[in-house]
Amino acid sequence: MENPKNSSYNNKNQNDEKSKKILQLEKQVSLGLWIQVIGQIIELKGLSDLLQIEDESNSTGEKQIVSGVWIRTIGQILEAVSVSKQIRETDKVRLLEEQKIAIAGDSLVAIGSILEVMGGLLVLEEETGKISFLVP
């Protein structure tokens, strides 16, 4: 028969290992989000510069695409900051607030993506004269 003290020790050890693994994975998620933020900022800079250089041909669609990228970038930053804060947070109320901010960031990313799609369809319509809702 197993000693109850040994069983308790094994459970605590397993919980510690699980907690460490969870923390490691949460940090990995946070790092991935920050890498996405860097990519978003690079994309935003490139598109914004292109829009300025091609000022004589700025279409409504192109402006809408850049607006969508701006919104997506802001959302991505909000999410990355919030997830990073959640990793260190121990207060349940503050943790829930950070989760709400992450969800708001996700929502902004989705809205920005929708604006980009709509802008892309406008650019396609301007360039081809017809609109297609299924872009290959």
Poorly predicted spans: none
Taking the sheet with the most strands, its summary is: none
Output the helix-strand order. HHH
Structure classification: mainly alpha
Can you put this structure into words, describing what you see?
The protein has three helices and no strands. The protein is mainly α. The N and C termini lie far apart (66 Å). The mean pLDDT is 87.
TL;DR of this structure?
This protein has 136 residues and is mostly helical. Helix content is 85%, strand content 0%.
List keywords for this structure.
mainly alpha; elongated
Question: How are the elements arranged and paired?
Answer:
Elements: H1 4-53, H2 60-88, H3 92-128
Helix pairs in contact: 1-2, 2-3
